[in-house]
Amino acid sequence: MNQEKVREFFSAYYEGTLDSGLQQTMSATLSKDPILLDEYRKFERTYEELGKLKFEVIEIPFDLHSRITTKLDQHVAETNKSLPAGWTIWVRNVTLAGVAAAAIVGAVLSLRPNTGSEVSPAGVSFPVTTEETPAHVDAVLRQGVVKLEFSPNEPKTVEIRKGLEGEVLRTVELDGNSMSSSLENTGDSAISFAATVKEDRSVTIVAVPGKLVSQASSSGEGTLEQFAVALADAYNVPVLLQVKDPKAPVKWDLTDKDVVRAATSVVDQHAYNVMKRESGLVSITAD
Amino acid sequence: MSESYLDDALLIARAQNGDRSAFNALVQKYEVRAYQYAFRLCRNPELASDIASESFLRVYNALHHFKGNSSFATWLYRIMTNCFLDYRKRDKSKMMVSIDNAMQGEDSELERDLKDPARNPLEETERTQRITKFEEAIAQLADFQQAMLVMYHAELMSYEEIAAALDLPVGTVKSRLNRARLALRDLLIKDEELFRI
What we know:
heterodimer, A: seven-stranded mixed β-sheet, 7 helices, 13 strands, about 30% helix, elongated, B: mainly alpha, about 0% strand
């Protein structure tokens, strides 16, 4: 065994973890080579010195915990700087029947609707500016997360439901400040969220895909809202629907590989615009 | 009331659901260990506090990614090691071993730690010098070598735990640790008398 190889085994030899054959070979090699043996002895003493590290007494700063939690608090505060007062309440329990009137910062609500899929309107976050010019209410896809963004010019009340006819998940009072709310779907199939501005009854529907791509609804008929959900399911993209009548009936047969072409063929008759944004989100809007 | 007695998995699940008190309990459970590890790496109390704080902030931001494939402690060590390496990259000049400063004052940490009335002055000086030289030598090693030596010899982590923390094969960890010890030995040989090496 050459010297380099012997050195590679110094630690294992010291720890006694070599197999017996190799252990004997090492012992024999070291006994025949005084220089190498001297190297090993120095290695042994180094190893022993290292062993003393564990006995070192380290004084813990008395304010360590508060330093850490202060840094966390500052971080949370900075990310929520522009929220109106009262929007930093931690809410632990929300019932399906209740209306969550307070904003939740960082909290994720897991609700279990009758369909069995989980709906999580996650935390309200600080306002962001986006390359996609936000409308009064808009949806964006950012780092894989679908967010509803609100940027009213005056006080507005926005009601967010699970689907146009579903339970109210949250009522948001906007006093002119912009804010955003993450939408999360942890179920297998796509679902829709509907945000209605009470003052003008405008509706923004966002279909959020589930974990699985499904062709189950790739052909069918129903409302525009149901079509948006079918699109999200079939192409695994979030779909934003901002039209006057999301209950308008449509028929679809999604055979085209291109989601924009597929959607256009369905809504063209209504003169709606279909666009795929850079982020991947597909929007169907009336212009 | 402290919740740190609760199982890590339970605290993590609650923290992932937005329960800040559960996260604070996790912090309370691991902050001392985190600080000690950071201090052993950088030998500067202020910087060690910064590294510990920054590490927990990174944990907070990334907790939703934690799947429980490794223990929380292992994950925390990985984050802390990366944090230390980032600090080193950012500002090497701040990572000077603080022993020199500590040695100057009458009430220095190092002197306080070393005080042992049973030792005679000559032994005390030698012991102090030995610790100083030893820590200086470790500080001269490559950053990742320092981290691995501290993990193994001070934090008493196993090769497997270090491998999990650094996302390396166990064989690689063993080989790198061996080389780190050899490198340290070579540095200490210069002070043979002090270490009787």
